[in-house]
Design a protein that fits this description.
Family: Belongs to the methylamine corrinoid protein family.
Helix content: 40-55%
CATH architecture of the largest domain: 3-Layer(aba) Sandwich
Oligomer: single chain
Distance between the termini: 40 Å
Largest sheet: 5 strands, parallel
Number of domains: 2
Protein name: Methionine synthase
Enzyme class: transferase
EC number: 2.1.1.13
Number of helices: 10
Strand order of the largest sheet: 2-1-3-4-5
Shape: globular
Structural class: alpha/beta
GO molecular function, one term: cobalamin binding
Length: 227
Amino acid sequence: MSKDNLLKELEYSIVMGHLDADDEGFDGTMEGTPGTLELMEQALDEGIDPKEILDVFPAAMEQVGERFESGEFILPDMLASAECVGQAMDILEPKLKAGSSSDKGKYLIATVKGDLHDIGKNIVATMLKGVGYQVKDLGIDVSSEEVVEAIREFKPDFVGLSALLTSTMIEMEETVKLIRKEGFSDIKIFIGGAPTSKQFAEKIGADFYCRDVMDALQKVQEVKDAS
């Protein structure tokens, strides 16, 4: 198989959520065929530049995003594709030269204190890694103080905060206020989650409200392009 064909196969495998040969993919017909993990190993074994492999991820996830927005894919489909990217990145990252996966900047992400929901956050984190950002994921139930401490250590360009519960929106507000109080005025803050809105983002001093995963990626890229 040529290099171009192999990378196309890898891209298609990610789009179809086909993790490995034991997985049947979205259409139920791919079991027994090489999946994302096998194709990743094959590409590396054949000496394909890890940076060329890395370029496959955003192309694949762009297709996933388009299919999700059109209604062809639903959330579990996007999760499966994101899982493919996440595990592929685990294989690829050690092969990349230091700094090559963080050329676009650093992104700190967390679900705020009192909230244990992380599906949306995890997808955003995985997709940001896939398109070349260095991501530090603080996980769930993260206090404002923990976010600020991580900012001091990680020195991110962007901070993403997620909340799925109306009751935890106040924690999001407190976190944004503390970030600004501690003097991190240049960091762009993104918020997302079912109860949030553009109006809420403006009220608490966040820079951007993201309605979904693809909106988050688009807005980060817009900020990056404008800088």
